[in-house]
Amino acid sequence: MLGYKITPRPKVIVAFYPYYANFHDPFFNDFSRPPSEELMTLLAGVNQSITNIELHINDARSIFFRRMCYEKKQSWALVSRDPNEPAESIIKKLKRFSAVDNVDRNFPPTYLSHGLQDTAVLFTQSIQMAKKLEENNIEFVLDLVDGAIHAYDLEDQSLETFEEYILPAFNFAAKFMK
């Protein structure tokens, strides 16, 4: 969202395993049925943002998050609390949060790095974004990392990983930071 929501826009974006258009991907969204009664009950019991991946397994937010993922209702949970809201309405709301739907000729140069084994955020998200950047003649790098999972750069903090995957992102950004 930094690339289109703030003024002035950043000079460059470096994004590792990012979401860009999760509502386009059926992996995250099942609009064929409304949220279950169980999910609605869990939602009513969640009163804090989900901001930490280290939630206790029995924390209400953790239970809600797992159920939301199981039912593929991530997009619905982001913008709606109405179990009967039509898919078209949810998608329209989500487009405001979707970088891939808001790329224009003023979007900053962007470095995308994504693991091909990422199951938390599918690498197709970065491929979709790269296509949009290319269509708008925005300079970008798409680095798809074979065998890497989500947060691969945090999982393996070796010098080799830094030199192979992190340093190129810094070098890309440095070109635009003058």
Explain this structure:
- Helix 6 (124-135) links the parallel strand 2 (110-115) and strand 3 (140-145).
- It is globular and about 50 Å long.
- The protein has eight helices and three strands, in the order αβααααβαβαα.
- Strands 1-2-3 form a three-stranded parallel β-sheet, with helices on both faces.
- The chain has helices at residues 2-5, 37-44, 60-71, 74-79, 87-94, 124-135, 152-155, 159-174, and strands spanning 13-16, 110-115, 140-145.
- The protein has 178 residues and is mainly alpha-helical.
- Helix 2 packs antiparallel against helix 3 (60-71).
Tell me the Rg in angstroms: 18 Å
**End-to-end CA span:** 22 Å
Count of DSSP helices?
8
The sequence of SSEs as H and E is HEHHHHEHEHH
Number of strands: 3
- The averaged pLDDT comes out at 87
| Sheet with the most strands, sense and barrel status | 3 strands, parallel
